[in-house]
Design the sequence.
């Protein structure tokens, strides 16, 4: 959910865009990060811990803690808390360390 | 490989102030590397008005201070401010590597100012990794930067300035805060913030800690518990609170990775938030090419970071233009402003911390010191 009225801040949101999360279509506004757009859509679990598969969301939201790594447009280990969402982006939950084969 | 007079890592208050001061003092080749796609660092989410006895931006909101800096920077084409440029490493030949738009670049600066800020501390309790447990800064980011509601019912942990200010900002955004809990017997933040929270009917519970978080896929409740004066949990005082978000405002720790890579001598100083680079009074480290400004050398606040940024820039400029008396005078004046800001009971903590670093200058822990520097 998004804040509508705020006593100090005025959120200028542009035209809605759409991206996909695990095959589902999610709407967002330009300038939002992937993690914040997912959060606004009620999705707080972004990934699972590698050893015990515990649910994980972001913690720091500024690119420090790496608790929000996901696969974005096929690229694993993207810090979704700092990468801006784009129209048509394909965001998927990452399994384990992420597959880099075929990349680079 | 590009050469330059000065490289600054971090485009927050310290880094921005450093870039502008360096330009003002005559430096022409200045690189400012900022990993985010925007400048301003954490200022961009500070909706509260700054105060402080000194007239450094007192009464202005952090978000507006960021705008003031950005406007000034636009008039300075000699400052290469790269947004989305991530410093990747400081190498032994004093080369700074960074990635920018998918490519790797190398920079050889005569002087480097590290202004990388801090990261939030975690707290140990069962299930502290559940989604919905956020640092206070993360909550500010969601709410004030992106306009997204971080949760419906919040438990705030920590009654220092950040805990109190963020609790108040949550109220401003129309979000319910169940309680602010604090393990010590003291509300560490300013009384003016605490009374705003209390007037809104939110309890500030001192001598309380979190025993555990509960929930399956995300946080559904928290169990809080009383502590006695020796910080021991009092049995039978557990209380379960239905909340969907836990916000941790339990302190920050300096981001020192690049300082360690640069071979800077480090010291552990609890008052400053953990391991910090040892600096002399001009903010120069044991690597004479490297200066540190702002929270990355010790947790303080944005006004101090701005002054430290200016001081680091004046110190670097002083070595690039030796014998320049105007620069020396500038340095003295900034030092006086900093001393002014840290006067009085509020600054006692930081004064004690800084004094401890200086005492550590020759006897600090050097577990990080790399052999190639010796």
Sequence:
């Amino acid at each position: 959910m998004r804040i509508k009225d705020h006593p100090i801040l005025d959120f200028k949101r542009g035209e809605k865009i759409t991206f996909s999360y695990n095959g589902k279509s999610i709407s967002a506004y330009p300038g939002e990060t992937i993690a914040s757009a997912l959060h606004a859509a009620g999705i707080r679990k972004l990934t699972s811990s590698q050893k015990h598969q515990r649910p994980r969301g972001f913690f720091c939201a500024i690119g420090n803690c790496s608790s929000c790594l996901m696969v974005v447009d096929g690229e694993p280990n993207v810090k979704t808390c700092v990468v801006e969402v784009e129209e048509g982006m394909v965001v998927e939950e990452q399994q384990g360390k992420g597959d880099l084969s075929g990349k680079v | 490989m590009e050469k330059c007079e000065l490289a600054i890592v971090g485009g927050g208050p310290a880094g921005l102030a450093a870039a502008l001061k360096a330009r003002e003092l005559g430096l022409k080749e200045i690189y400012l590397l900022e990993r985010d796609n925007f400048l301003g660092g954490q200022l961009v989410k500070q909706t509260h008005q700054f105060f402080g006895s000194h007239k450094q931006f007192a009464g202005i909101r952090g978000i507006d201070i960021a705008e003031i800096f950005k406007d000034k920077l636009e008039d300075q084409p000699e400052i290469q401010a790269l947004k989305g440029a991530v410093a990747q490493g400081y190498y032994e030949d004093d080369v700074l590597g960074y990635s920018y738009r998918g490519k790797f670049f190398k920079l050889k600066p005569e002087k480097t100012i590290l202004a990388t800020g801090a990261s939030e501390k975690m707290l140990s309790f069962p299930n502290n990794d559940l989604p919905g447990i956020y640092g206070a800064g993360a909550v500010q980011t969601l709410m004030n930067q992106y306009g997204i509601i971080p949760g419906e019912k919040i438990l705030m942990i920590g009654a220092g300035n950040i805990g109190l200010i963020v609790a108040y900002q949550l109220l401003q955004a129309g979000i319910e805060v169940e309680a602010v809990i604090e393990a010590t017997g003291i509300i560490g933040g300013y009384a003016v913030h605490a009374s705003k929270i209390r007037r809104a009917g939110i309890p500030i519970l001192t001598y309380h800690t979190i025993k555990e978080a509960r929930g399956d896929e995300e946080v559904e409740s928290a169990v809080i518990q009383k502590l006695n004066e020796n910080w021991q949990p009092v049995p039978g005082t557990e209380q379960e609170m239905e909340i969907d978000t836990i916000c941790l405002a339990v302190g920050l720790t300096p981001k020192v990775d690049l300082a360690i890579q640069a071979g800077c001598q480090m010291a552990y100083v609890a008052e400053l938030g953990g391991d910090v680079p040892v600096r002399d009074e001009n903010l120069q480290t044991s690597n004479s090419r490297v200066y540190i400004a702002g929270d990355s050398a010790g947790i303080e606040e944005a006004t101090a970071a701005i002054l430290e940024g200016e001081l680091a820039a004046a110190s670097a400029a002083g070595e690039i233009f030796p014998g320049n008396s105007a620069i020396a005078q500038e340095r003295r004046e900034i030092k006086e402003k900093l001393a002014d800001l840290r006067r009085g009971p509020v600054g006692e903590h930081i004064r004690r911390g800084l004094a401890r670093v200086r005492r550590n200058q020759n006897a600090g822990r050097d577990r990080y010191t790399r052999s190639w520097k010796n």
Summary: Chain A has one domain: 17-92. Residues 34-40 of chain A form the longest helix (7 residues). Chain A has a mean pLDDT of 93. The two ends of chain A are 37 Å apart (CA to CA).
